[in-house]
Every structure is written in C-alpha cells, then in structure tokens.
Amino acid sequence: MVSLQELKYKRNKLLTDMQAIGAAGFTTESRTAFDAMAKDVEAVEADIQRAELLEARAIEQASFTRSARPGTSNGGVETNLSKDEKNERTRKAFLQYARTGFGGMNSEQRDLLTTSDATGGALIPQMFNPELIAALKFYGPIATLVRQRVTDNNGAPLKVSLANDTGNSFTLLGTQGTSTPPETDPAFVSKIVGVDTVSAGLVKVSVQELEDSSFDLDSWIRYAFGLRYARGMEKSVTLGVDGAGTTLPNQTAGGMNAGAVVGQTTASLAAGFGWDDLTAAYGALDPAYTGPKAVWQLNSATRAYLVGVKDNYGRPLFTPDPAQDGPFDKLLGFKVVLNQSLPNMGASAKPILFGDPSAAYLLRTDGQPTIVRLNERYMDTLEIGFFLYTRLGGTSIVMSGAPNPLVSIQQAAS
C-alpha cells in the first residue's frame, strides 16, 4: 500500500513538473503533457484525501484511553467496553441488520436502535454521523469553514440576528460637563432560515451480496454516502443548489459565491489571471477579514492554471518544494482550499474567492443525517435499498453597508 507521504510527494512532484513546463513556455506537446499531469494531480489528490481519512480514523481509535474504574451493569449494557470494542460491536450488529432486517445483539444492548414503518422502511442508527463528518472534512471542507448552526427542532424556522457597528467610533465631547454623547445604535437586521430535505440518492444492494460475509458494509456506508454527503454540502453552500443544479429554496440564491463582492475583474478573458489580479483581490478585502481564517478558494483546474503563472519579476506564484506536505497550498501567505463546486475559468466566471467564509455565510443543519433501509420495496429483484437524507439551510450573514468578508476575482466577458 502506498503511504500518505509517498502520495503527497507524488502530488508535489507533478505540480513542480507542471510549473517547470509553464516556466519554459507552452508548445503543442507541452500543453498535452501539462493537461495530463493536471488530471494525474486530481487523481492523486483524491487518493491523499482517502488516505488522510483513514489515518484520522486510526488516530482517533488509537487515542482512546480506557477508564481505570470498573464497569457497571446498566440494564444489560456493558459500559466497560473500549471505543474500538463498541465500534466493532456496532459494526457487526449493523451488518447483521443490513442482511436480515433484525438486530444482531441482545435486545437490552442499545448500541443499535431502529424503528420501522408500514412500508418496510427502517432507520439505521445515527452513530454513523461521525463518519460522515470525517468525510466532510476531507472531501468537502468548505462546509466546515463557514459558520455552523446545528438545531434539533423538527426544521422549525430559525431567526438569525445580525448587527453592523462598523461605522461607529469615537465622538468628541466639545464642552466638559455640558455635552452629551450622541445616540449611535448599531444597525440590526434579522433573517429567517428554514431547511430543505435533501437525499444522497438511493443505492440498491443485492441480497446475495449482503449475505456474502466478505462484504464490508461499514466501509460501503462510509465511502458511498460519506462522499455524496460531503460533495452535496459543498455545492449547497457554494452555489445554493443540489447536485442536479436545482435551486434550494432555503439557501441564499447563488450561495456563498454569489454573495461575495467582486474585488477584481481581469483585463481580458484571454489574459487569464495574473499576479496583479491576485494582489488587487487581496487589497480589496477589508483588513478585518485577513486574519487566520482568510483562505483562497478555487477548484483544482484553476489551481493547475495558476501553477504556471509568474509574478511581475518572473517568479512563480507557488514556491515548489516537493519535500513539504503542501508546498502549493498557499498564495500571498494565505491557505489555498480546493472547492470543486466553484466554476472553471471562463467568460464572466468567478472562479476564485478570497476571505473569511465563517464571517460571510451561515450553514444550518437540523438533526443528524439519517440512513434508511428499504426492506421490501425491491424484494421482487432480491435487492435491499439504502438512502441517506438530511435537512439543511443557509444564508448570507453580510449586512448591507458592512464590509464584505469575501471578495472574488471575476474574469472579463471577452
């Protein structure tokens, strides 16, 4: 198995080679080679994210320290089990449930809880939520960068209050003892945030496959639904749409990308992006939002383009160093975060964002993601259906007249 470090070195080496091609000037052959390397980078990036997810899972499991106190009995529930033992117990029970529709544990052990309805649907326990959150961090990190509001009130509308006090400061009191300070109340506004119910799609698994003891259903849940969940969250926050491009009623129209103010428009479409465009976007962002949470957002195709771009002194924007974990992860000293939901470069497109996402957008999730097992619906073809659904909403938290925490670079129309 290729190690995480080897994958990162391979990724960094490819980006360095792409940068060398860009520095030498593009020809018909070098363009082909450059594009091929860009595709290889995307594939390796995906492998790195998978390896990091597994590594994080291993670290989490290894960090558990069992309490020195003896376990006690609580209605048949064993409380002295380690985290690994509980996870393994639940995994086996879940596998048994997926195969048969019945729990594989003592009825008094509450690790696995399900309810069924008249149509044969059953809820699989929400303890798998941490797996989905782990996938979110590695495959769709944008949703973890914005402000979070987690509720559990059956999707009832949530009131969010915003305040803008950026225009207020000191006022001189001209005559001591006679002058009174003027009233300078902050500007307040409230927004109501609802939620939409979204699904990660239906997956059908044959009964024969479920009965195969070698089938690792736990991994299937993590990768099949975890990836869909993460990609869906990223797209809903960034663009305000679902995976099919349908507008989500309870997301700000256009999402975070539409809410960003244009900080720089390129001179022409053919000119692409240059050093001056990046520095202009940096200058357009209010200094209050250039702190540690400020990041550049762009997709991998835009990053591949920027790898070959130089500043006005002929120096590359990225400083290559294959020995480092992320030598291509910073621009102007700020972290670069890949957001695959941002558009590719093109006429009037806004493929680059810069600023603090947590000060620009609020993501609301109601309850935890839930996986449903369809016991009977597809039994005429000897299949069991599984799907994941969750409830989410979102809104821009930038008030009119206040500095925008996010700026974009927009390409010229022609």
Q: How would you sum up the major sheet?
A: 6 strands, mixed
- What level of helicity do the residues show? 25-40%
Radius of gyration, taken over Cα atoms and rounded to an integer in Å: 26 Å
What is the number of helices? Answer: 10
Query: What is the residue-mean pLDDT, rounded to a whole number?
Result: 79
Which secondary-structure class do the elements indicate? alpha+beta
Give start-end ranges of low-pLDDT stretches: 64-77, 104-127
- Name the shape in a single word: globular
Q: Major sheet: order of its strands?
A: 8-15-12-9-11-10
Distance between the termini: 48 Å
Q: How many extended strands?
A: 15
Topology:
Elements: H1 4-24, H2 28-62, E1 73-74, E2 77-78, H3 83-100, E3 121-124, H4 129-139, H5 142-145, E4 147-151, E5 158-164, E6 187-193, E7 196-206, H6 207-211, H7 217-239, H8 255-259, E8 261-265, H9 275-284, E9 295-298, H10 300-307, E10 330-331, E11 334-338, E12 352-355, E13 361-374, E14 383-396, E15 406-410
Parallel strand pairs: 4-13, 8-15, 9-11
Antiparallel strand pairs: 1-2, 3-13, 5-6, 7-14, 9-12, 10-11, 12-15, 13-14
Helix pairs in contact: 1-2, 2-4, 4-7
